[in-house]
């Protein structure tokens, strides 16, 4: 992995870690549906402008079913779950729970793709579940039932990411940029009917508007471009290492900008989830950092 790729990787982790900060700032005022509709619409418009600049045409109707599957399970539904959870949980916890997606992906692969779980992966699942249990115990004592429901929403979102990751193995071959662009427009359509049922609660201020734009343009649209560049230059295995960095940035941003306390449970839970994910995916930092 070249120095440029390492810098892109760190920047991507910082951006995705920041997405939980912006959701935490806006979720209670806008509600989950309005927040996520604003996020995916801003991201879709951003990629539309990029596609016009590059002269790339999105054949949306040619892959309609595919875009809606990806748009639902990789964008709209998990985004909504995290926006719901952001009304209760802090940014660092959201980021940590998000990183359990590869754990669910491995379990789903063993059932769907008939890929047997190796002993190392099984151990990783147990370690990851232990990490989640540490976080659940922390919030059960402080937030009660509301906190537990929020944690379950995050885990459901991570499960959906696992479904999406496995679906892409059998999905039609579509270029990464078109996958991102088409699925975002599908997500816009999916979330739209929910708006009347989850109305805005507070007046939309300039800071809230800027946070939604940052979520859409920077944390979604621009982040997708960075991610797909990493996949192209260094392969999906190396790009996967961003999973381990996002919780670290989520913890740091939450502490710096929201004054969230960094407790022992948070650090222990994050460490266990990250170690479990490394074991499940078989990821090797040594191999990833070799220049390709």
From TrEMBL:
InterPro entries: AA-Vitamin_Transporters, EamA_dom, EmrE-like. Its main location: membrane. It is a multi-pass membrane protein. Keywords: Membrane, Transmembrane, Transmembrane helix. It is found in: Membrane. Residues 7-136, 149-281 form the EamA domain. The chain crosses the membrane at residues 33-55, 67-86, 92-111, 123-141, 147-168, 180-198, 204-227, 239-258, 264-285. It comes from the Bacteria. It holds the Pfam family EamA. PANTHER family: AMINO-ACID METABOLITE EFFLUX PUMP-RELATED (PTHR32322:SF9), INNER MEMBRANE TRANSPORTER (PTHR32322). This is DMT family transporter. It comes from Psychromonas arctica.
